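re: ur question from yesterday

yeah so i grabbed the chain u mentioned. its 103 aa long if i counted rite. heres the sequnce exactly as i have it in my notes:
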Amino acid sequence: MPISTCKTNVDIHPGRIVLESQQVRRTKRQVEEDNMRAKAAAITEREENEANHRLVLTTIAEIEDTIEETEEQLRMNSTRLDLHPNRKQPRNMKSDGPARRKE
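ran it thru and got these structure tokens back, copy pasting raw so excuse formatting
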């Protein structure tokens, strides 16, 4: 009678546990290539982060510039209310001239 494996153990290999637990050995060249790839990836990531940071700073600077320009316009036009584009004139001022007093 031939000896056969039990049906539940057909796909199980007893040496697989030992093979999976062994560390994969690499040659010196493979280690150097992996290190160079890691350094290159770190450099590109740093450059991307710096570019993104520069973009954010320029966007913030542009926003601040527009705010400063609008504030400067408001300061220049603060004496004449009719020059304000978004403000309404007070009720006592007429659009055709200065307010007149009734005597």
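noticed a couple things. The radius of gyration is 39 Å. also Residues 24-83 form one domain.
anyway ttyl
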